[in-house]
Design goal:
- Helices cover about 50% and strands about 15% of the residues.
- The N and C termini lie far apart (about 35 Å).
């Protein structure tokens, strides 16, 4: 399926990022989808604050690119569906980016979820904490 292929591409990008990038200087941007459930969104916003990362909730690729242009991060942790992550990772290459595929128990773009621990690991990895 397209999602399985997308998932493989995202895993490949994450492995490539981890193999090639250096520690960030507190310029990590966390991109969140607007469809994320509110309690999870709040947890990740707090995590971003504790980690001294910029966070942004976006509604798609165009909005994400505008935030990236404004913030000029040295690395990105992005949460989205496979399609959005693939497009975003391609757009920001060679900037280090780690993608985390969201969980969609109610279908696409509605009350999505993510493993907060995975987001925390990605941030810690980019910051090498």
């Amino acid at each position: 399926s397209k999602d399985r292929v997308g998932s493989s591409i995202i895993r490949f990008n994450n492995a490539l990022t981890k193999a090639a990038s250096k520690p960030m200087e507190h310029r990590v941007l966390i991109l969140l989808p607007r469809c994320l459930r509110k309690p999870i969104l709040e947890q990740i916003l707090q995590l971003g604050e504790r980690s001294h990362c910029e966070t942004a909730t976006v509604g798609g690729g165009t909005a994400a690119r505008k935030v990236i242009e404004r913030v000029k991060p040295t690395g990105i942790v992005a949460i989205a569906c496979e399609k959005e992550l693939q497009e975003g990772m391609t757009a920001v290459f060679p900037k280090p980016s780690l993608g985390i595929i969201n969980i969609r128990p109610h279908g696409p773009c509605k009350d999505t979820d993510v493993e907060v621990a995975e987001v925390e690991k990605a941030i810690a990895w980019l910051l090498r904490r």
